[in-house]
Amino acid sequence: MAAPLIRLVDIRKQYDSPGAPPVPVLHGISLDIAKGEFVCLMGQSGSGKSTLMNILGCLDTPTSGQYFLGGEPTAGISPERLATLRNKKLGFVFQGFNLLKRMSAADNVALPLMYAGVGRHDALSQARTQLQLMGLGALNDRLPNQLSGGQQQRVAIARALVMNPPVLLADEPTGNLDTATSNEIMSLITRLNHDQGITVVLVTHEPDIARFGKRLVRLKDGLIVFDGAVDEGLA
Amino acid sequence: MRAPQVIDEALRALSTNRLRTSLTMLGVIIGVCAVVIMLAVGRGTQSMVNQTISSMGSNLLVVFPGSQTSGGVRFGAGAAQTLTVADASAIETVSGVLRVAPLVMRSFQLAYGNTNWSAMVTGVTPDYFPLRSWDADEGDTFSENDLRSYARVAVIGKTTSRQLFGEESPVGRTIRIRNLPFTVIGLLSVKGQSLDGRDQDDAVFIPLTTARQQLIRSTFPGSISMMLVQAKSAETMAEAESAVTDLLRLRHRIGPGQENDFTIRNLTAIAETAAIAAAAMALLLGAIAGVSLLVGGIGIMNIMLVSVTERTREIGIRMAIGARQRDIMRQFLIEAVVICLAGGFIGAMLAIFAAWAIATLTGLLVEISMLSIALAFGFSAAIGIFFGWYPAAQASRLKPVDALRVE
Fold first, then answer.
1. DSSP at A171
2. Cα–Cα distance between A210 and A190 in angstroms, integer?
3. Minimal Cα–Cα distance from A14 to chain B, Å?
4. Which of A95, B103, B111, B251 has CB 3.0 to 4.6 Å from B176, enough for a Cys bridge?
5. Chain B residues with CB within 8 Å of chain A CB
6. CB neighbour list of residue B361: distance below 8 Å, 6 or more residues apart
7. Residue A111: pLDDT above 70?
8. Which of B18, B321, B396 to mutate to test the interface with A (most CBs of A within 10 A)?
9. Which of the pair, A102 or B56, is modelled with greater confidence?
10. For helices B3-16 and B18-56, what crossing angle results, to 10°?
11. Which one of A82, A98, A169 would you mutate to disrupt binding with B, by most B Cβ within 10 Å of its Cβ?
């Protein structure tokens, strides 16, 4: 079997703040995720799922342990290399959408391309194509505050996918949306996973959302307490 | 990210908070404007001094007679009548000396028709005019012939001419000096103020011989008020000065250890002092203006730090989608530089306008040089980089996870 797309080996994380005792959050997480999987991370507040997500997204570094992304170790590499990994290998979707307020939808989507060195003109035309695929072709020039929550999240997904990354990381992507819109967003993500083979890791605390996934990883107090099929885990 | 996009983003970010951007820019505008104007005023003053200096004539030594003691009363320098026309002609042969102009002078009442005016009347030789590089605008200066024939001719300055003749041409008219008629044969070009502020154009020049015989009689034969000695070049001035001193001591039979009965003054030295004073003033003005530019720069640093704090989340988002540290660094640095360059440009434009206004309203000489504008521009860009660096570095060193956590 080929090496998994994501391999975590005994990941530990503790937060040190001066003058206070260190706060351990992750106590040794080992996890393999193969290409094309749809993994849901669940757990109560404080279980460490967001911390794990940040480490997976190369936004944060573990205190100890190994993280291989596409077979490459990520420990000890430069901030520049980490930025390139985030740019090329990982797509991020957040609960609060995190679009840049001053920029149109198309400009937001074009931004990762421009950080990769693509010229403005090409970047914008690729961004428009991507928005078209998301069914947002008519909203290219709208500012984020002129869009509904569902539309904003779809722009954010378009931005996450415009570099064609192998992995999509979604941190409670439906947390700010109503049920109908949540379902739309989740079917979009499911389709991307199913049709394009994009590996999805999704954090949620809603069982209804988790049901869209295939595999469930449940965290408690910084440790994995369940890892298996979604149907089994939610039963 | 490519350069045009970075600049585009900087402009966009700056235009979202226009009031703040303009106030920050105002600091730079005032700073650059002050620097350019002060440099211009400083340069203007310097060239005014230089003009005055060159109007005296170049490489000049002035020889005055010494003091005299009569019955225990000591008179001041110049009181003695020890310098003579013969001394002057002897000095002409000294090596390193180009020209010698002996002169006598006294103030007289002048009259033309029913107007009259008091002015200094100076008896000079024809060499006086080239020595002071002074030409006639109208008519001509007098000749050796006039000198030999004790001619009653006069060459007058612009101020005197205006007082006596108004706007009419004085050439060919006859003025009376102490009731003696003199024909005006030349009107001199404008010389302006001397270093001590006297109006050099309020003057009447007549042949030395005529003056000595008919206006300024002296009991001492051949005596003169003073003489101007022009050295061949700046390098020969010192040599000429000591040669003239030696010659005069010999001619006046001054034994070793005795004091000179004349004084030699080097005008170039005086001029240099004035030039140094002007340069010092220019430097001082520039330094004061520089301080205001510095304050403007600190304003930029301040506002950039605020901006980084406010946009922490934006920085986090950008990092999450692949911005590298240097992308963030560049973004904030460019914003600071854009503010500075725009401020520098507006400041330089304002300075050009202000310089024009100052020159028109006060008559001061104000010289804006391309160099000072380029300097101010370069300086404001440098200030942008210098004061933008720290906030930009702060922004780029944020950890993405921490930046994203900020609301």
1. E
2. 11
3. 14
4. B111
5. 1-2, 4-5, 8, 12-13, 16, 313-314, 317-327, 399-401, 404
6. none
7. yes
8. B321
9. A102
10. 110
11. A98
The span from the CA of B287 to the CA of A100, in Å, is 43
Is B277:B364 a contact under the CB 8 Å cutoff?
A: no
Q: What is the mean pLDDT of residues A172-186?
A: 92
Give residue A75's pLDDT band: very low, low, confident or very high (50, 70, 90).
confident
Average pLDDT, chain A: 91
* C-alpha to C-alpha distance for B138 and B399, rounded to whole angstroms: 82
Q: How confident is the model at residue B1 (pLDDT cuts 50, 70, 90)?
A: confident
C-alpha distance from B405 to closest chain A C-alpha (Å): 11
Helix (H) or strand (E) holding A101: none
A183 or B216, which is more confident: A183
Q: Using CA atoms, how far apart are residues A114 and B6, in angstroms rounded to an integer? A: 10
pLDDT band for position A231 (50/70/90)?
confident
Helix (H, G, I), strand (E, B) or coil at B248: helix
User: Which of B341-361 are b and which e, b meaning 16 or more Cβ less than 10 Å from the residue's Cβ?
Assistant: bbbbbbbbebbbebbeebbee
Q: Provide the 3-class DSSP secondary structure of residue B107.
A: strand
Residues A70, A37: contact at Cβ < 8 Å? no
Q: How close B303 comes to chain A (CA, Å)?
A: 19
Interface A-B: count of C-beta contacts within 8 A: 72
Best mutation target among A61, A78, A87, A155 (most B Cβ atoms within 10 Å) is A87
Q: The tokens of B387 are what?
A: 């004061």
Distances (CA, A) of B231 to A106, A112, B270: 80, 77, 16
Residue among B237, B241, B274, B246 nearest B63 (CA): B241
Mean of the pLDDT values across residues B48-67? 79
- Average pLDDT of the residues in B191-201: 79
Q: Please identify which residue in the block is written with the tokens 């040669």.
A: B243
- pLDDT, average across residues B102-123: 91
Which pLDDT belongs to residue B75?
A: 60
